[in-house]
Amino acid sequence: MSAALLDIGVYGKILEAKVSDQELLIPASQTDSSEINARTRRGRFQMLFLLLACAAPVIASYLAYYVFKPEGAKTNFGTFVQPAQEMNAAWFDMPFNGKWTLLVARPASECTIKDESCLEALFLMRQVRVAMGRESGRVQLVWVNTDGKKVDAEVSTAYDEQNAGFKIINAPSDPQLKAQFLEWLNREGAGQKIQLIDPSPAKMMYFPITNSPKEFGSIKKDLEKLLRLNRKGENLQ
């Protein structure tokens, strides 16, 4: 009897030991799993942070130029066109696709050597292109002759393609195409301003006509930034 009780007592202690071991093992396994999960989460957060840090400059430049229209403490002088206004390739028999283009539209009958407002626009465009230095080859200058009349000889000599880099072209002759072009040109009241066409091609910014050295410098900075940050779609041939 006493031996049986002894055996039962020993067996009971063995069971208690096994239960105690299990109670110790279960929390330990849970702790290990929690620590592994925590390390995994930390690793993922670190990788995500690294990716965001690398992509931040690209994202910021894209948002600054194509999404947000800065107000108040804006850094751009020209006015952004949002959304950009696409050109119709049928308007002109010359390539705009793949080019950065500064475009102005004036009737030849009014753009004479005595017309300071027209000459200021042409002179400003020429000087901005020259100021681009090594990047000047990425920018073409276009004067759209809106009445199709003969360009003043003196103006033509001063602002031709060879001396000043200007392409002088006539507005579309087809009435429907001309109406479409003029509607595009004059959106947002920009018809008398210098219009910047991107390589897509689409109007994405316009500038006022100015003879202020400070404002000239601001136009130059705007164009330098765009040329530095954007090369996609260019065709310099």
Structure in words:
Keywords: Membrane, Transmembrane, Transmembrane helix. The protein is an alpha/beta fold and 237 residues long. The protein has helices at 2-67, 116-131, 153-158, 161-164, 175-185, 213-229, and strands at residues 79-86, 100-106, 139-145, 166-170, 194-198, 202-207. A hairpin with a 3-residue loop joins strand 5 (194-198) and strand 6. Strands 1-6-5-2-3-4 form a six-stranded mixed β-sheet. The longest helix is centred in the first third of the chain and has 66 residues, at 2-67. The chain contains six helices and six strands, in the order H-E-E-H-E-H-H-E-H-E-E-H. It is elongated and about 85 Å long. It has two domains: 32-73; 79-229, 3-Layer(aba) Sandwich (Glutaredoxin).
CATH H-level superfamily title of the largest domain: Glutaredoxin
Judged by helices, strands and strand pairing, the structural class is alpha/beta
Mean pLDDT: 81
Query: What summary fits the major beta sheet?
Result: 6 strands, mixed
Pick out the low-confidence regions.
1-8, 17-26
Transmembrane segments: 48-68
Keywords: Membrane, Transmembrane, Transmembrane helix
Organism: Polynucleobacter brandtiae
Protein name: Transmembrane protein
Summarize this structure briefly.
The protein has 237 residues and is of the alpha/beta class.
Task: Please give a handful of descriptors for the protein shown.
237 residues; alpha/beta; Glutaredoxin; 2 domains; six-stranded mixed β-sheet; 16% strand; disordered N terminus
